[in-house]
Amino acid sequence: MSLLTVGSVAFDAIETPFGKTDKIIGGAGTYITISASFFTKPVKVVAVVGDDFPKEYISTLEQQGVDTEGLQIKEGEKTFFWAGKYHNDMNSRDTLVTELNVLEHFDPIVPANYQGSEYVMLGNLSPQVQSTLIERLENKPKLVVLDTMNFWMDIALEDLMKTISMVDVLSINDEEARQLSGEYSLRKAAKKIMAMGPKYLIIKKGEHGALLFHEDKVFSAPALPLEEVFDPTGAGDTFAGGFIGYLAKTDDISFDNMKKAVIYGSAMASFCVEKFGTERLLEITEADLEARVKEFEELTNF
Amino acid sequence: MSLLTVGSVAFDAIETPFGKTDKIIGGAGTYITISASFFTKPVKVVAVVGDDFPKEYISTLEQQGVDTEGLQIKEGEKTFFWAGKYHNDMNSRDTLVTELNVLEHFDPIVPANYQGSEYVMLGNLSPQVQSTLIERLENKPKLVVLDTMNFWMDIALEDLMKTISMVDVLSINDEEARQLSGEYSLRKAAKKIMAMGPKYLIIKKGEHGALLFHEDKVFSAPALPLEEVFDPTGAGDTFAGGFIGYLAKTDDISFDNMKKAVIYGSAMASFCVEKFGTERLLEITEADLEARVKEFEELTNF
After folding, report:
1. Closest chain B CA to residue A218
2. Which of A216, A218, A268 is nearest to A243 (CA)?
């Protein structure tokens, strides 16, 4: 089924205890589309870059099966740039640089060819941009998934609450769920958040896996205990891309199939962290993915 | 199969955001034996109390199926007493009072009737007391499980390393696994710790569940997302009691059966936190437990 995503396509510079990168391709939209294109093609992307964004990066996306008609290239402007440094535990990081550049006035234009998309993934971005995109869709999609973060809760809560009320699935981490709901218990938090609009809630817990909530049901997905997390950048976006990619491929939005989608998303994320940036995601095969999903089965079977 | 445990039988005074207790029955040995007696009877306990310990508390243990022949009552001495206060997140606590009393010179005497026990659970105690107990067993047990904590790593590491080298299964939490191994990655930590002696390692992660390691295998057990954690005191001991109780009942120490034992232990712990102290554990029925284990199955099935 057709899949549309909006999200940043950007430059990242990453420093971890294992090394550092120059400016490499990054951004939520990049990770989401690469991950989702593993399941369904084409993945239509709405995003914006400056004229400093290398043509070969765009070719990389296209080779993965990403439809870049909705990728705006702004002449004379610069691409969004983020630089960060991870601490030794790899669970926390400092942001060293954030240059919004083209993202500051991003108008999410939806090409005519993108209309009729049945699955929509709103990658982490200003909630005002996310809701504008939904409003520009001529047909109601089958499923809209929203990923966001505490930054928008801090500076644009009203816009965020509006966007949350328009989506079917919300994906946030445990601290964000607590902040948004004012509840420490994730079960209580989930109830309050689902009352804000989304029928489904995914709570990401990093190295502890993820929870999927729907009505009174809950599913707990483990994270694969890895020997080494090399670079966590993009893991949450990769998860989201795998989640919606699997749903679009199977075209089944039952709770039981969403559980599987959470596992496939988790499996994709477990690859993402094994190398810098998108490097590992561009290497893996279908057999790699199936073997990894099998590891998740063995991990939880009793 | 016969089950022997050593651990503190004590007074606790607990304060949580939901209320506070007077001195109630507590201690690792108490939670372990009550939890284990749900699976197999009698549970033989080696412990020590003072003459201030109420007869009705001992009767409570006996009614649950605990053999108290090894419970020493020291005339003119006082029972171990711990008081603590939980913070609002229920994940951290302050110790308000620790009175060692009879525990200071505890000599773990093993009654003749206790010899030949096939399953042995060493509850959290001084590692020197734990190793003394093992040395006093005339026959090698089928399985020895050790629970300990960071306190002993800080003040008695050498004794602890000796005790660790004598057991089959070690049960500690994630921070303790990192402290003991010097590794942040739990997978790496597990390798190093299993090289210290134990063939199996359980890493408890509180609200995030538990991991069971053996050779290259790993099992991830979820925690049940609860609406409310009322009192976490004794949850880890209750887990340990359920774990070894299930193994002693089924008399099967394969990795596959240990996975089930981790789930049964987790289910027992999920009851423990629902009320103050041991209150909830004394109420539950076999049907309650089976229903809870079913919830764990539904939680992880995909």
Report:
1. B299
2. A268
- Count how many pairs of residues, chain A against chain B, have C-beta atoms within 8 Å: 86
Q: Which residue of A has its CA nearest to B187?
A: A227
Distance between CA A115 and CA A119 in Å, rounded?
11
The answer to ipTM > 0.85 is yes
Question: Is residue A19 within a helix (H) or strand (E), and if so which, with residue range?
Answer: strand A19-20
Task: Give the pLDDT score at B242.
Answer: 98
Kind and range of the H or E run holding A158: helix A157-165
- Chain centroid to CA A124: how far? 7
Which of A90, A220, A264, A299 has the most B C-beta neighbours within 10 Å, making it the best mutation to test the interface with B? A220
CATH of the domain at A88: 3.40.1190.20
**Nearest by CB: B218 against A88, A90, A299:** A299
Is the CB of B254 inside 8 Å of chain A's CB atoms?
no
The parent domain of residue A84 ranges over: 3-300
Domain count, chain A: 1
Query: Distance between alpha carbon B15 and the CA centroid of its chain, in Å?
Result: 21
**Does the distance separating the beta carbons of A225 and B222 come in below 8 Å?**
no
Per-residue pLDDT of chain A (302 residues; tens, 9 = 90+): 899 999 999 999 999 988 999 999 999 999 999 999 999 999 999 999 999 999 999 999 999 999 999 999 999 999 999 999 999 877 789 999 999 999 999 999 999 999 999 999 999 999 999 999 999 999 999 999 999 999 999 999 999 999 999 999 999 999 999 999 999 999 999 999 999 999 999 999 999 999 999 999 999 999 999 998 999 999 999 999 999 999 999 999 999 999 999 999 999 999 999 999 999 999 999 999 999 999 999 999 99
Ramachandran region, residue A197 (left: φ > 0; alpha: ψ -120 to 50; beta: rest):
left
Show residues of chain A in contact with B228, CB under 8 Å. Answer: 185, 188
Share of chain B above pLDDT 70, in %: 100
Measure CA B205 to chain center. 14
> Which residues on A lie below 8 Å from B208 (Cβ)?
205, 208-209
State the smallest CA–CA distance between residue B189 and chain A in angstroms.
9
CA B56 to chain A, closest CA, distance in angstroms equals: 36
